[in-house]
Amino acid sequence: MVILDGGLATHLEELGADLRDDLWSAKLLLENPSVIRQAHLDYFAAGAEVAITASYQASIPAFVRRGLSAAEAEDLILLSVHLAAQARDAHGSGTVAASVGPYGAYLSNGAEYTGDYDLDEDGLTDWHRDRWHILADSEADLMACETIPSYTEARALRRLLAETPGMRAWVSFSCRDGEHINDGTPLRMAAGLFAGNPQVIAIGVNCTAPRHVLSLISQIKGKPTMVYPNSGEVWDSANRRWLGLADPVEFGEAAAGWTAAGSAFVGGCCRTTPEHIRQIRAHLTGSGTP
């Protein structure tokens, strides 16, 4: 069992960062990189064994749109990996996974939740290629292809993986229910793109409601399974509160069920914190307390 980290942006906001920006957490690579390193350290201290870098939204087109040169953008993408590596080294152990976020994150129009794109497979391959090779040549241990909402985008990433035969990766889809990724493709079909690929260490789901996770685990065959859902919260306007697995103890209990169902990697995504990861560690080691 491998414990991943939790929501990087969520914890950065807890540490005082203002992420109201199209670059989201990647804007801190420009403004305050030390707080990113601290967030990684906090997750390692909570029991995470993997730090996922702040490169989810750190693409060359996004930084160029902000006014930087392509060379400056490349330096910032590499910085995202270096910050996670620094935290790992300070902690004394761990793995650095370079986040490869979806094209929809760059669009900043909600397409990462639908997979409704204006590029075909060739276009998506070309869009991802520069960042892909920068991260593949970095000090990262592996690539985290995450929050993938589109079957076409998954095919594009498969092509890029073949361009870097020495790099390992995981592939994690965002799903709209217990059987389909966000563009409507059955998860079983999307996962099948990578089931026989020796470079892929795991296939899974993230940024997905916890209530769908057990069903989704059963859709993945041929590789170890990973799950790092969001908290599943929805706004209850009548009672003015969030409903879901926001409570870290409940999230830890649910994580124990996901591992019992066969998931070999478990962590959290949006609105999960180091305390959620601490509770996952506690429940998986059987202590019941952090």
**Strand line-up across the major sheet:** 1-10-7-6-5-4-3-2
Q: Which regions contain 5 or more consecutive residues with pLDDT less than 50?
A: none
CA-CA gap between termini: 17 Å
Mean of residue pLDDT? Answer: 94
Q: Could you say how many structural domains there are in total?
A: 1
The named CATH superfamily:
Homocysteine-binding-like domain
Number of helices: 12
- Percent range for β-strand residues: 15-25%
Largest sheet: 8 strands, parallel
CATH class: Alpha Beta
Radius of gyration: 18 Å
- The CATH architecture can be named as Alpha-Beta Barrel
Structural class: alpha/beta
CATH topology annotation: TIM Barrel
Shape: globular
Number of strands: 10
Helix content: 40-55%
Mind explaining what this structure looks like?
This is Homocysteine S-methyltransferase. Pfam families: S-methyl_trans. One of its GO terms (biological process) is methylation. It comes from Streptosporangium vulgare. The protein is α/β, with parallel strands linked by helices and 290 residues long. The protein has a single domain, classed as TIM Barrel (Alpha-Beta Barrel). The protein is 43% helix and 15% strand. It contains 12 helices and 10 strands. The strands form 2 sheets. It has an 8-stranded parallel β-sheet with strand order 1-10-7-6-5-4-3-2. A two-stranded antiparallel ribbon has the order 8-9. β8 and β9 form a beta hairpin. It is globular, with a radius of gyration of 18 Å. The mean pLDDT is 94.
